[in-house]
Amino acid sequence: MAEATAAAPDLASALIAENFSRDPAGLLQIGGLSLTALAERHGTPLFVYDADLLRRAYRALRAAVAGFAEVDYSVKANPNPAVIRVFHEEGAGAEIASGAEFDAAVRAGVPPQRILFAGPGKSAADLDRVIGGGIGEIHLENREELLRVATAAERHGTTVRVALRINPGATAQGGAMRMGGKPSPFGFDEEELSEAVAAVEGQPRLHLVGLHLFAGTQGLKAETLIGQWAYGLALAAQIARQTGRPLETIDLGGGLGIPYFSGDATLDLDALRAGLPPLVETVRNDPRLAGARVVLEPGRYLAGPAGIYLARVLAVKHSRGSRFVITDGGMHHHLAASGNLGQIVKRDFPVVAVRQGEGASPCTVSGPLCTPLDVLARAAPLPELAEGDLVAVLQSGAYGLTASPTGFLSHPTPAEVLVDGDGAVVIRARGA
User: Fold this and answer.
1) Which residues pair with residue 149 across a beta bridge?
2) Which residues contact 140 (CB under 8 A, 6 or more apart)?
């Protein structure tokens, strides 16, 4: 993906108009609460999430795919139990990628049988943890893991429900990052699907109930997602033919994207809904699939737009014709915004001043760390700023704090606050 040179002000303005607000003095608000007041109360840097926006995203997606799929939440996007709880209260199960995420989901109230465990390197300790805790399903990604799960199941004297994660062929690709169609640590290659099914079927402590397909992520085009899901249904039918029994679960992954940069389009849920009837017919007309629970498990799409990363200006420096806004926030808390998390999302995220001002011009927003990598934005169009002002990084509800190198240079971790109704509660204390 080509690196964006700036987060256009029209994207930031559109996001503010859609998700947030400004008070009569031009100060940015979240859920009707002042970000300035939240910063004074909880310190900066600070992550703030709006529970109503989390609910709104979940309900909109659930309505768009109603009659085809259920919607679970991918905990890796934001594993704070308070965030997981919001989605669980809306009806979501959880997809996890570690034993600690299993614990977080259970603390949030998710029943273990509504939890799916994916990931290419599940340890024996984590498998013991989740099998002993009654997890609903484990998604197998390689032969060694298959044997580890069978061994753990024998140790616990139980039969474990499993699905096969398949690394699909090139025809199933799409999104900003391909997750299949090439050599990959994720899942069994499609070419070895039959051998993988036979290997699972040969283990008496494993009960093969489903398929997991995750072809790509940060997908913003409905037609791409529909194509991936259709491919997944075909693979699911292939597994059912080989086992001779209907599937119970068809996990079509997440991969739904959100706009970060100028030119990014918001995923069109109406177009997504319009593309579903052929998929619904495929499931309905195939007795091997008709009874299966089809599930989507997005994370970024559900949590990303609800979050703001708030940082305070420490200094404004002019160097050889360039303006640098130096803040107390940086890549140690928000690696994705710095562009260093991976190839899915580079920079610039939409960054705005909390206090509305005139005469915006491009500037570099950098953090307090002694590395040139600590840059939150390279060309953010911001008004004149001074020490003490606040800047807000939008689209920060997913892959923020827990996806970042928080130990680098030993700065304290920021607090996380959840705004719900007319109040705000600390869901992670500063320094915790």
Assistant:
1) none
2) 146, 149, 162, 163, 164, 165, 188, 196, 200
- Say whether pLDDT at 175 is over 60: no
- Let me know whether 279 and 314 are in one domain: no
Last residue of a domain, one of 254, 288, 303: 303
Q: For 284-297, write each residue's pLDDT tens digit.
A: 999 999 999 999 99
What CA–CA distance (Å, rounded) separates 211 from 262? 36
Tell me: do 221 and 79 sit in the same domain. yes
Q: 367 and 411 in contact (C-beta within 8 Å)?
A: no
Residue 401 lies in a domain: yes
Beta bridge partners of 307: 49
29-61 pLDDT, tens digit each: 999 999 999 999 999 999 999 999 999 999 999
CA distance 413 to 401: 8
Which of 303, 321, 342 is the last residue in one of the domains? 303
Do 147 and 282 share a domain, yes or no? Answer: yes
Same domain, 89 and 208: yes
- Residues forming the active site: 370
Cα–Cα distances in Å, from 161 out to 88, 92, 207, 272, 274? 22, 19, 5, 30, 33
Q: Tell me the CA distances in angstroms from 248 to 134, 179, 241, 292, one per residue in order.
A: 18, 24, 13, 4
Residue 380 backbone dihedrals phi, psi, to 5 degrees: -75, 125
Whole-number percent of the chain with pLDDT over 70:
94
Q: 79: closest CA among 428, 409, 350, 430?
A: 428
pLDDT tens digits for 72-96?
Answer: 999 999 999 999 999 999 999 999 9
Indicate the SS3 state at residue 242: helix
What is the C-alpha separation between 351 and 380, in angstroms, rounded? 6
Residue 258's domain comprises: 51-303
Q: What is the DSSP string of 4-52?
A: PS---HHHHHHHHHHH-EE-TTSBEEETTEEHHHHHHHH-SSEEEEEHH
Same domain, yes or no: 206 and 101 = yes
Give whole-number Cα distances, 144 to 150, 173, 340, in Å.
10, 26, 31
Token pair in block for residue 422? 């007319």
Domain total of the chain:
2
Q: Give bridge partners of residue 327 from the DSSP assignment.
A: 313
- pLDDT tens-digit profile of 235-271? 999 999 999 999 999 999 999 999 998 888 899 999 9
In a domain, residue 415? The reply is yes
Q: Is residue 3 part of a domain?
A: no
**Is-contact 288 240, C-beta < 8 A?**
yes
How far apart CA 87 and CA 40 sit, in angstroms, is 29
